[in-house]
Amino acid sequence: MPAKHILLLSILLSGLAGCTPKAFTDEAGYPPIFPDYVGVTVPEGIAPLTFRMEDGRKFRAEQRREGDTLWTTVSAWRRGDRTGVRYAPFPIVISHDPIDPYIAYRLIEPGYESWRNMGIYQRELASYDERAVVTNRANNLGCVNCHTFDQGSPERMLFHARGEGGGTVFVDGSQVRIRNLADIGPNRQGTYPAWHPDSRYVAFSANTTRQCFTIRHDQPVEVYDTDSDLILYDTAVDSVRLLVETKESLETFPAWSPDGKTLYWCQAADPGRIPASRGQVHYRLMAAPFEDGGLAGEPRVVWGDDSTSVSFPRVNGRWLLFTAADFGTFPIWHKEADLMLLDLADGTVRRVDELNSDDTESYHSWSSGGHWVVFSSRRIDGRYTRLFLSHFDGEGNFSKPFLLPQEDPGFNQLRLKSYNIPEFVKGPVPDRQDAIAGLFPKKEDAQ
Hints:
There is one protein chain. With 447 residues, the chain is mainly β. It folds into two domains: 3-95, no CATH class; 102-437, TolB, C-terminal domain (Neuraminidase), CATH 2.120.10. The protein is built from three helices and 33 strands. The protein has helices at 10-13, 411-414, 433-437, and strands spanning 23-27, 33-34, 41-43, 52-53, 58-66, 69-77, 83-87, 90-95, 102-108, 119-124, 130-135, 144-149, 156-161, 167-172, 175-179, 193-195, 201-216, 219-234, 239-244, 249-256, 262-269, 284-291, 294-295, 300-303, 309-316, 319-325, 338-343, 349-351, 361-366, 372-377, 386-391, 402-403, 418-425. It is globular, with a radius of gyration of 23 Å. The two termini are 37 Å apart. Residues 1-17 have low confidence and may be disordered.
């Protein structure tokens, strides 16, 4: 990303220069701005970090760069004021650690609301450019979900398409195809996917999922599994086999070690009578060696207890980041859900306080270089998930997270869509909308 993009476009946000007061009093504290970019660490060349004053005051921002720190001085005032306030300059640290140039995510109405238009989108981090990867116009306004890219490759991905003619859509360069996994294996459809590092295999959980409504004000909806196993799709021979199946347990959320020699997943004892017993569902982090297309040893518990439920394990070398909730398998509806970090070298686990908030933190992924993480959070308003990024130093420490920049900072609050399943991508994803649409029967009313 070119360094020229590091600026704030403060002239556009400060209002008319003629309205600026002639005198300012100094304030020792930092300015109250939204989004809060005070003291964050950002990649070199990210799109300008536009912001506004939280209380709506006019402002101007002046910047100077000293080494790898961008110091920003904000002066603010109200219309008609003769005197304004000049705040202490705040730092933005610029990191040279590489970050993948794109992120991909699904945009969808939150939770159980009805929807008509949804899609998987890509966003360039060096600009505000957002473009569709695929929308549900391709499959007659059905659901598109659970996308993932093979090691971040923009040329190789998969996603699930629900509705008439649905299945798992595989994209490999200009080739697109759809497979109904239940038809070529042990009658299991794939749900949550994970590409093996050698690109041949894809591990899926096969989930039977339900939802219920609760009377808890802090958790109106609970999504749960009544059955779930792990299956393995072999792209070389177009076959599906059971990988982990137990009658007394629920298995979900597969993930691979970077060398592909270990499969991780989440597993909980099935208490029966779910959802009445949903509070007893505590998923533990499991692992087993993998070779020659199958497990090569007995599964073992890596971490877990009877007060925490693990979901979304993601491995970055010796570090494994996961989401933890009080119980259950769908943390997005758990206000207490937080991110936790496991050191695979010594087995220690800590709650990542520098990333967490008083609201839901959920899905997350590592950049290919391992120095950045993107995650979804409901911290802005408690209703919509938005994307935050943070720098990782490789020693177990994260920087203060920052909200994905937008050209208009108010867009972060006004967009009535949730960002879902964010993943880093190593380049722009080619347009395959028409090719994917050709996989599905046409309907005249799909617009």
